[in-house]
Amino acid sequence: xxxxxxxxxxxxxxxxxxxxxxxxxxxxxxxxxxxxxxxxxxxxxxxxxxxxxxxxxxxxxxxxxxxxxxxxxxxxxxxxxxxxxxxxxxxxxxxxxxxxxxxxxxxxxxxxxxxxxxxxxxxxxxxxxxxxxxxxxxxxxxxxxxxxxxxxxxxxxxxxxxxxxxxxxxxxxxxxxxxxxxxxxxxxxxxxxxxxxxxxxxxxxxxxxxxxxxxxxxxxxxxxxxxxxxxxxxxxxxxxxxxxxxxxxxxxxxxxxxxxxxxxxxxxxxxxxxxxxxxxxxxxxxxxxxxxxxxxxxxxxxxxxxxxxxxxxxxxxxxxxxxxxxxxxxxxxxxxxxxxxxxxxxxxxxxxxxxxxxxxxxxxxxxxxxxxxxxxxxxxxxxxxxxxxxxxxxxxxxxxxxxxxxxxxxxxxxxxxxxxxxxxxxxxxxxxxxxxxxxxxxxxxxxxxxxxxxxxxxxxxxxxxxxxxxxxxxxxxxxxxxxxxxxxxxxxxxxxxxxxxxxxxxxxxxxxxxxxxxxxxxxxxxxxxxxxxxxxxxxxxxxxxxxxxxxxxxxxxxxxxxxxxxxxxxxxxxxxxxxxxxxxxxxxxxxxxxxxxxxxxxxxxxxxxxx
Amino acid sequence: xxxxxxxxxxxxxxxxxxxxxxxxxxxxxxxxxxxxxxxxxxxxxxxxxxxxxxxxxxxxxxxxxxxxxxxxxxxxxxxxxxxxxxxxxxxxxxxxxxxxxxxxxxxxxxxxxxxxxxxxxxxxxxxxxxxxxxxxxxxxxxxxxxxxxxxxxxxxxxxxxxxxxxxxxxxxxxxxxxxxxxxxxxxxxxxxxxxxxxxxxxxxxxxxxxxxxxxxxxxxxxxxxxxxxxxxxxxxxxxxxxxxxxxxxxxxxxxxxxxxxxxxxxxxxxxxxxxxxxxxxxxxxxxxxxxxxxxxxxxxxxxxxxxxxxxxxxxxxxxxxxxxxxxxxxxxxxxxxxxxxxxxxxxxxxxxxxxxxxxxxxxxxxxxxxxxxxxxxxxxxxxxxxxxxxxxxxxxxxxxxxxxxxxxxxxxxxxxxxxxxxxxxxxxxxxxxxxxxxxxxxxxxxxxxxxxxxxxxxxxxxxxxxxxxxxxxxxxxxxxxxxxxxxxx
Lengths: 611, 489
Description:
Structural class of chain A: alpha+beta
Mean pLDDT of chain A: 81
CATH superfamily of the domain at 367-489 in chain B: Tetratricopeptide repeat domain
Domain Bardet-Biedl syndrome 1 protein GAE (chain A): 485-572
Order of helices and strands of chain B: HHHHHHHHHHHHHHHHHHHHHHHHHHH
Radius of gyration of chain A: 39 Å
Strand order of the largest sheet of chain A: 1-28-27-26
CATH architecture of the domain at 367-489 in chain B: Alpha Horseshoe
Region (Disordered) (chain A): 455-477, 568-611
GO molecular function (chain A): patched binding; smoothened binding
Helix content of chain B: 55-70%
Protein name (chain A): Bardet-Biedl syndrome 1 N-terminal domain-containing protein
Domain Bardet-Biedl syndrome 1 N-terminal (chain A): 4-248
Oligomer: heterodimer
């Protein structure tokens, strides 16, 4: 039985947000509320079963990328930060308080110089930019737009339009999180951490007015998770779009930050990141959740395969007599799986795709799980006090699979077998010697037979399968013959038969063969066909070409007679060779002309009379 | 000496050839000599006697041309047709098709027929069992001049049926020597109008005629009537055969058990019970019955061979070895037996004898692809890849449709990191394995395709593999994994 209580379900909440767009935070009055940065450029606050506030973001703002609740000072007045475009809008007491703007990206030095010089003509600007581009300078959007413009008038118009805009480019905040400043107590001051499109991770002051420190990571961050305390020791784990997880930590002295090595290489793009005690859980786009050790060499502890792609991953800390932390993994098939370490302890079926998920205190209830689905409904699930996520206590059992305890069906040892063992023990050297001798004999017999087979093949290729590769006798012209495989089969009961030929050019050969003729030779008293020869289509290595011959048995009373099938070489080619290369051995060339590339004898079945 | 007496003596000693030629001489002198004529008929019949109670291989063409099909739905447990989800899954080849007992049983008259048959069966096309009957007829008819006595044109069935004794001889002659079931059927029908006292005999022959003509329902009626009058073992076996042909193994078992209740110690009936159990894949029952067969007749070749095979596949090669040794002691020596003994020795770690037995098998027949295939397996066991691939190549040169060898060559090619030729091997093995229950080429092909990143082909192949063998866990896992990649779950 699932332990969850269904506290609230609002099908028409109409929330449109992604994983970073919802958070549980205190808004006013010491109760946990759900804050949502809706795609409709609104900050929405839910309490209990109702929406209590809705504050529109400034009209110029973009779709919000994250929301977080934090405390700016010691007064324990909660603040909410909403990241949208380059700005972090800070709300206090549900009123706009101020706005922090992420540092814009400075244009490339060369580029800036070009734009700043006022005497340059638009055409010159374009040439200079093209040169800078060729040298590897990273151009901003205005320069990139300039490059393909060829007509003078358009260039002029572009320059005029753009020259009033500063050369710096605004960046975009991609993700947010919070990091406690001095202590980890519930209402202590905390810093907002931002990740930007300009590949920066910025730790803001608690007042969110300036940056405490910033670090540039190799790729734009996608998910941020923080641990520790800024004034003591801290870590920010950054899952970036280059499928790596970087660790940012305190630098040589307080207030600085560095990327700590080694980073974590993921096998696919990150879909979720969670830090739990000494472990880092990473969900990746290949439907796996992997657990890594935080300390030391980033050793992978285990990896779990999920039945569907992961959409969200969260931690739920169940505080009771004993603190239990479980991992919640929302999947694209509408399940939310609950893991305790690597044991699946519960599966919650939402039957809708979860778009955002968070857990924490909602109202006065500590262990609450908030789910926002893709079609905008809001689910609030609470964990009753009796719930325990004991391994094996719920429907999904943890631990080793039950098959492990089923004994393998190993046959019992018989008396006879034991007797044989005794014999073996007593005569081990003799048995070994005999065995070695016999093995050698058998190997020689096999090798002889194999050699015989190869010799027969080279002597007369009247064999069903022509042999491949390394025949030493063959010269270059003949390798084509050696690389052909011919298989024939007869369909039909008679008197009409279909002979189906399958000719395959072995994969070892690289050049294709074209228009090879195939000829049937048969006893004309016994068989008749309208088409005794055919031309094979293009033969590509490894792909079989088929040819079908219809043949009729004229005299059914006579015993069946074998039919010879031959694939011939190219006549024209031979002639050309003969005329062009006089140095070439003439006999050799003639040989090729006479001998078919592959030939095979097909034993025909007796035509069956059905009366 | 009176030549007729001599001919009789030859007949008693089963020297049919001489008996027949003596009779022919007599008939030349005196064309009206009824006694000589009948004796010649019996001699000719005797020459062509074959064991009718053997299981017949049902060719693919038979299945195609079968008009008696009842239901195409799988009926696990009550049908001899293989079902994909076998209820009591058998992991070993069913020995019903290549029955060691029939293959190597020393039969006098059959030997040359078998030799005559050997060519057509090795053609690239499956034979029908009815076609085989015809061919048996032509094979024997071609060798000897037609006597023409019982030609339909000359002798009227009704007149012939008047003389019961002669009619019975004639009926057998028509069935066995001339292989003309239509004429024999005419005679049976005529005789049944004349005779009432031994009508079970005629009904039995009638049933056989119908059976050879492919009229299984009529054969069933005739044979059941015959059994109702007089329960005779051959008739019961024939009826069981008819039921198997109709794919009604349960009915066949019922008939056999009814007959067994009357004569519980009959070896042939017990044997058939075991065979039917084996055909419907109830292995335990089958093995139990085979054990009973061997208890009843300690030198029963088929029983011993089946017990040996089942012990080998059940993980007791040492016990299988005992049975095979007993077969060898009984004088049943062939390359197959020696190969089996060799394999048993190899797998029960009797290494000093294992390879010697395989060499012996090679000496007896070095053109048997199966022997080379098994040598290849032993070579794999020894860890010698070159040796193994040589053996498989030889097996392929002897039979280029040997799918098992092709599959193994493919696996060896994978070991050599030659994915392209491995795929080619698997592809041709898949072509040749299309009508058998071999799923390995498909599964292995899927693995290679998966490794090469060709997920679509891998998925197609593994689906085929699952179709053939629904119980193969690795195929199922691979299929699940692939479907997960395609998000079709």
